[in-house]
Design goal:
By secondary structure, the protein is α/β, with parallel strands linked by helices. It has eight helices and eight strands, in the order βαβαααβαβαβββαβα. The chain has a domain of 151 residues: Rossmann fold, CATH 3.40.50.300. The strands form two sheets. It has a five-stranded parallel beta sheet. Strands 6-5-7 form a three-stranded antiparallel beta sheet. The structure holds adenosine-5'-diphosphate (ADP) and adenosine monophosphate (AMP).
Length: 220
Amino acid sequence: MTRRIVLLGPPGAGKGTQAARVSTDFAIPHISTGDLFRVEIAAGSELGMKAKGFMDAGDLVPDEIVLDMLSARISEPDVASGFLLDGFPRTAAQAEALESRFEGGAIDLAVLLEVEEEELVTRLSGRWVCSNPKCSGVFHVVYSPPIVEGICDACGAALVQRNDDKPEAIRRRLEEYASKTSAVIDFYEARGELVRVDSSGSVEDVAGRIESAIDNAIPA
Ligand code: ADP
Ligand code: AMP
């Protein structure tokens, strides 16, 4: 069966962490626009160079750039089984553009991960990610440490801190979320497609809540 799901939530809510599990458990591709940009930046492509300045500052990348990239990704054959979008849409215009790609509704469910702002800052400040841009490994110095310090459990590459996990960029990303991405929550709520999930507590507890929400909304 096809499942098209959007994972929403502020930076640090746990979208990437949870998306890796949901993608495996429901056998749908995990599509993170942030990861796609980081692959482009690592490759030194023109697209990557256009996005880098916005990302490092904690600003959203302009809609046209994001939409071209996302549109190409969701044209790939693996999307026939559905998809799990992480970090997209982030503006009302992006949500509308996604709708225009599918007849009869683009998505089955939008899952909003909710966490207190203080906890978001703690999570982002201690985040370490895999330096291999194709890996998506994500760790936390206290909450999810890797088995070997500084090394990714999944692929063995070195772990690094993201340029945008510095205090000034974290503050800016939280502002961007409040000012632009809240409209995306309203968009899916008005369509009756939004479910809110408490993303505090352990990674396992949150995963259980998300999987129940998906099973309830999109029965197999
Ligand atoms: P997002 O993709 O929403 O920005 P991440 O999945 O990258 O968030 O998580 C941000 C940080 O918080 C990472 O360091 C991750 O290891 C950690 N984290 C994720 N979920 C939890 C949780 N339930 N409890 C504690 N830390 C978490
Ligand atoms: P993320 O990996 O989801 O935390 O995204 C990191 C950064 O990539 C964001 O702060 C934005 O600069 C950029 N980005 C990722 N996805 C989008 C999007 N859908 N719209 C605009 N900018 C995005």
